[in-house]
User: What shape does this take?
Amino acid sequence: MTITRDHPWVGEPQENPLVVGIEADQDPRVLHRARSLAEQLRTGMLCVWVDPGHVVASAEMAGAGTVPVAPDQDGTDTTEAEGALIDHVQRQLEGREVSWRFVYTAGEVARGLSRVAREYQAPMMVVGSRRPGFAGWMNELIGGSVGGHLAHTQDIPVLVVPLPAPRD
Assistant: This one.
């Protein structure tokens, strides 16, 4: 069972839009490259945030919802984080012709992006490379690279947008 929240389209709804993985503090190059590609392909973008801090929990009669992964976290509502990400996407795509939609889902990032891509019959996924520096290296060591995982498990193309190394 999955849970997603689709927000309204900004612009005309598009069939077969690109799936773009987004996250807080993401380098704007990821959205810019995805936008450029979407414009060239004459399609839209699904800007997907997979919340790794929550997982889907369901009760047969009560429906599905999300719960925090860490047991000491409260069941904080994610709407504030969603709002900040929507604002970020809106600022990056302001004045552009491309249509886009924000989609929220929870769980493991690569699986969440894959689910949304299948649901919308996306022709391609776009993600950023791992974050530069020690924190990015630790994330990759613990969970693996999202781009690498997707490139090895998907039957659609995955574009991994390279991000610059930190300057000394």
